[in-house]
């Protein structure tokens, strides 16, 4: 899993994730996620999952961790461009009922407005 993050001028912090969000990879990026959460406190973090190829329970745990930590500091987490196996798991677990999730890039812009 690879993470790239950048600050947008409109109060959103976009985090682009690629590869597999599994146990070993999530553990390796935990310090980066902590930094992102600290920098994104009181902001909306958009997790771009368009290039995530696999998601397991550790990846779900990382998403829930980010969501709870951001909410506790007045921020928010939005998932966007979720597709393939990660989409199936997110729908199965009904994560899309607890937080903003868009399946396509076009929906992302609708959610943000």
Can you describe this structure?
The chain is an alpha/beta fold. The protein is 45% helix and 31% strand. The chain is built from four helices and five strands. The chain has helices at residues 23-40, 57-72, 84-92, 105-112, and strands at 2-7, 12-21, 44-55, 76-80, 100-101. The chain has a five-stranded mixed sheet with strand order 1-2-3-4-5, with helices on both faces. Helix 1 (23-40) packs parallel to helix 2 (57-72). It is globular. Residues 108-113 have low confidence and may be disordered.
**How helical, in percent, are the residues?**
40-55%
Q: If you average the pLDDT, what whole number results?
A: 85
The helix-and-strand class reads alpha/beta
Q: State the order of secondary-structure elements, H for helix, E for strand.
A: EEHEHEHEH
Radius of gyration: 13 Å
- Strand arrangement, largest sheet? 1-2-3-4-5
Strand content: 25-35%
Separation, N- and C-terminal Cα atoms: 29 Å
Largest sheet geometry:
5 strands, mixed
Number of strands: 5
From the spread of the alpha carbons, the general shape counts as globular
Uncertain ranges: 108-113
- How many H/I helices? 4
């Amino acid at each position: 899993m690879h993470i790239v993050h950048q600050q947008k001028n409109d109060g959103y912090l976009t985090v682009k994730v690629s590869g597999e969000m599994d146990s070993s990879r999530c553990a390796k990026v935990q310090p980066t996620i902590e930094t992102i959460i600290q920098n994104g406190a009181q902001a909306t973090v958009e997790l771009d999952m368009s290039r995530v190829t696999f998601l397991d329970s550790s990846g779900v745990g990382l998403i829930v961790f980010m969501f709870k930590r951001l909410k506790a500091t007045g921020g928010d987490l939005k998932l966007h461009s979720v597709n393939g196996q990660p989409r199936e798991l997110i729908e199965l677990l009904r994560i899309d009922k607890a937080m903003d999730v868009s399946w396509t890039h076009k929906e992302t812009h609708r959610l943000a407005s």
